[in-house]
Design goal:
Layout (H helix, E strand, L loop, with lengths): L4 H4 L22 H12 L3 E5 L6 H12 L5 E5 L9 H6 L3 H6 L7 E6 L6 H12 L3 E8 L9 H4 L2 E5 L5 H12 L7 H9 L5 H17 L7 H23 L3 H19 L1 H43 L16 H5 L1 H7 L6
Helix pairs in contact: 8-9
């Protein structure tokens, strides 16, 4: 099929995208949670938001950025990008770019949204509390799964509020799909409910499955997804798992052949002993020439190292750039929740 599947249905973009960038104002079922967090921000609180991946935390963060952003008073940062510890000073200086680092300029009354906050440790909270007391940070929203509350400093606990993420039910899940596709004949309500039941109450998994089902239905020329079609879809999706197990059981056989080849090679080596002795003299001559070449290479490396040191000395200390955080290594949590980081892109200040 030449055209993209969702354009066949009349959509310009994928309506089941897991990125809430185009749907930040549609936090179905989480209006009360957004209100609680917003109230905490306005009252200079530290708000803890915990929930599983795919249950709406990213949509809530995007909604908060939309409500409180616009004047560069909001900093968004994913803690799985930090190296060893959270550099709060760097985040505050980065608000003013190069000049902020050069003159140690720090803004006041900033709202800090920390995603993947389960990566924070006791010393990170101590630094946050110091800048919070001095008025540089107005409010902090900690979002993640399994946040280590025991490591939060005692000074913070007096200003902390917890907001729990409840699981979405079938009716709300159906509303999420309706907001995105409307009354789509291809995807009846009963099918959406069945998909949600197979998604472990996870909205992100539900959206991804709806995308795969609709794509296959369009590519096979169907005008309506039936329960039988959905059943067959899940059977085919689960089938490759059983095939992989059979392949793994048959893998050890090639190893026996490799051992037999090695034995034959050893036998051949014994027969060619005379040839190897004749080549020894040539190899010895080459070995004598190697040290001279290696000495030259070592001298070149030393000279290059000196040149680099001179350049670093002239360049002075390292200057922070707001995009440097992208070079840091991510944790395993980032790999599991890769889409969350892609949602917000490279921007940190809103």
């Amino acid at each position: 099929m030449n055209t993209v599947w969702f354009r066949e249905l009349g959509f310009h973009n994928n309506p089941f995208s897991i990125k809430p960038a185009a749907f930040h104002d549609q936090v179905i079922g989480f209006d009360k949670i957004v209100d609680e967090i917003s109230y905490g921000i306005l009252n200079n609180k530290i708000v803890l938001v915990e929930g599983d991946y795919g249950n709406g935390k990213s949509s809530i963060l995007k909604r908060l950025l939309n409500d409180f952003g616009g004047k560069k008073q909001v900093i968004y940062y994913s803690c799985n990008r930090m190296d060893a510890h959270l550099n709060v000073k760097m985040l505050l200086n980065g608000r003013y770019g190069f000049l902020g680092q050069l003159f140690d300029m720090k803004p006041k009354d900033m709202i800090l949204l920390l995603d993947e906050a389960q990566e924070l440790r006791g010393k990170d909270y101590e630094r946050l509390y110091s800048y919070y007391q001095e008025g540089y940070i107005k409010s902090i929203v900690l979002v993640g799964k399994g946040i280590k509350k025991s490591e939060i400093v005692s000074g913070f606990k007096n200003h902390t509020e917890e907001v729990g993420m409840h699981k979405m039910n079938e009716d709300l899940a159906l509303q999420v799909i309706k907001r995105r596709v409307g009354e789509l004949p291809l995807l009846p309500d009963i099918v959406v409910r069945k998909i949600y039941q197979r998604s472990d109450n996870n909205v992100r998994i539900m959206l991804k499955t709806c995308e795969e089902v609709c794509k296959k239905a369009v590519e096979t020329g169907r005008k309506r997804v039936t329960e039988d079609f959905l059943k067959q879809f899940f059977q085919e999706k689960d089938a490759p798992v059983a095939v992989d197990k059979k392949v793994e059981l048959e893998k050890p056989k090639p190893e026996v052949k490799k051992e037999e080849v090695k034995v034959e090679e050893k036998k051949v080596a014994h027969k060619t002993v005379i040839i190897d002795r004749r080549q020894e003299k040539k190899e010895e001559a080459k070995v004598e020439e190697k040290p001279k070449a290696e000495v030259k290479k070592e001298e070149q490396k030393k000279e290059e190292h000196k040149v680099e040191e001179d350049k670093n000395a002239k360049g002075g200390p390292k200057v922070y750039r707001p995009d440097d955080y992208k070079m840091l290594k991510g944790s395993a949590e980032e790999l599991l929740n890769k889409q969350t980081d892609e949602i917000f892109g490279d921007e940190q200040y809103y």
